Amino acid sequence: MTLDQTTIDRLAATPIPPQRLLIGGHWVDGSEAPLPVLSPVDGAQITTLSAAAPADVARACADARAAFEDARWAGKPPAERKKILHRLADLIDAHALELAVLGVRDNGTEISMALKAEPGSAAGTFRYYAEAIDKVYGEVAPTAANVLALIHREPVGVVAAIVPWNFPLMIGAWKIAPALAMGNSVVLKPAETASLSLLRLAELALEAGVPPGVFNVVTGPGRITGEALALSPDVDVLVFTGSGATGRRLLEYSARSNLKRCYLELGGKSPNIVFADAPDLAAAAKAAATAIFRNAGQVCVAGSRLLVEASIHDAFVAALEKATAAMAVGNPLHLSTQIGAVNSLAQLDGNLRFLADARAEGADVIRGGTRILTETGGYYMDPAIVTRVAPSHRLYREEVFGPVLAVTPFETEAEALRLANATDYGLAAGVWTANLSRAHRMVRGIRAGVVHVNTYGGADVTVPLAGAKQSGNGADKSLHALDKYTDLKTAWIRL
Ligand code: NAD
Questions:
Q1: Which domain holds residue 435?
Q2: Ligand 1: does its nearest atom lie under 6 Å from the Cβ of 285?
Q3: How far is CA 245 from CA 14, 159, 240, 265, in A?
């Protein structure tokens, strides 16, 4: 699709009506007071979000349960379910720019990235799992001759999905598409600051032919709506992407309610490791800037810790500063913008606090690190590079989820590996080297769900994203994700 600024501007000026909940195929108002939706682009209120009270959530879960029990979705022939999910993917493509602009007004991601990463990726994800529907088989076990043992894969029932604000459509699709593909019902709870594009997706799902009650959306505060969903006895499996603090709470809710299985995709503090023998240091410097600063650093796999071999440290940091200065920060609805808005004022304040702490702990903020473009009313930050960051510093260990890069030198491969693994997280990593053996040693040694070599990011739906350590459990994407949405059942038949 060709992007043109005039169409984007027209879509961005479209008024957004007050939003409602989707329960049992009906659009209804939540019982809590509606929430204002403030756009990070300019701080203006663009609409209101309905807020679901526990009773509304209970109704959504009961409707999802009823839809599962009467098999209005799981009972359809696989070829028909496949057709409906393909139709949804086509509708997402047909409305891609509208969805992308709506999402950017809500969460602040730069449009050039949002179009590809949000509707583009979501449509691809729905197609991938639509195709899996009639290609995933059960098994016959190798038993003795007098027995036939069949292993069936069955849907789990009602899946609750709680998702964050940084890439709502992409991450939402990673959960909704495989859950629906396997025949489950879904109750989705988007983030307060990024619900709009997912509510539009729900409209498109109805239009595509997903039966009423099979896909429900409840919006509202995490501590009210999200908590009620995670406590619901009608939910069989809870899939979540978000912060570690919320992930911990969800495990408690599960223990306090019905022991629903919880799959958590949490944060990261991912090391991007540059050896002096990297094939193209200029390209590595550009990629290091992109790896942390696109979407204003609000990317779970962002390369937020740069580990650089000491012999090239100063030259590499100079190239990195140059690459960063070349990235335009500003209105995310402008095609030329490379770094959009920070999602909320609270997030921006948190980012700035990290920098104050880094200075107090003895690190050097060598560029950026301030709020800028305040005259727009929007939430913008000059991307920050911080050198002399030590493993004991808060900035080394904790996720900022903002445009802040921590730089640390190393002397040897062994030290690089030790530094890479020296946090509680294990989501992603990058390694830049021309030495094939070293690259493989690092891939083996780094504890992370994905290790990029001589590149950073870009892993597609065909491969899993599965956090190690405190970055989570279970996998999004690829056929491995289907394990979360199916139960195994054995039929043991004496012949
Ligand atoms: P968050 O944990 O604050 O919120 C995520 C979701 O949980 C939101 O929908 C929120 O309303 C809900 N929530 C909050 N409190 C709740 C509660 N008590 N009970 C139930 N639901 C509750 O996270 P965020 O700030 O929206 O997202 C940023 C985080 O997400 C970062 O840590 C980032 O690394 C992580 N993330 C991880 C991945 C991944 O694939 N591993 C991808 C994207 C983002």
A1: 271-460
A2: no
A3: 36, 21, 12, 12
Tell me the pLDDT tens digit for each residue of 134-175.
Answer: 999 999 999 999 999 999 999 999 999 999 999 999 999 999
How far, in Å, CA of 201 to CA of 203, rounded?
A: 5
* Side-chain half-sphere CA neighbours of 208 within 13 A: 28
**pTM (whole model) above 0.90:** yes
Q: 28 CA to middle of ligand 1, Å? A: 25
Residues 451, 479, single domain; the answer is no
Q: Specify the residue with its C-alpha closest to ligand 1, atom 43.
A: 300
Is ligand 1 within 6 A of the CB of residue 162? Answer: yes
* Best probe residue, ligand 1, of 162, 425, 476 (max atoms within 8 Å of C-beta): 162
Looking at the structure, tell me whether residues 275 and 262 fall in a common domain: no
165 in contact with ligand 1, CB cutoff 6 A: yes
Tell me the CATH number at 275. 3.40.309.10
Number of domains composing the chain: 2
How many angstroms separate the CA atoms of 114 and 45, rounded?
21
- What distance, in Å, lies between the first and last C-alpha atoms of the chain? 58
Please determine, for residue 1, whether its predicted confidence score (pLDDT) is greater than 70.
no
For atom 34 of ligand 1, which residue has the closest CA?
267
Report yes or no on 115 lying in a domain: yes
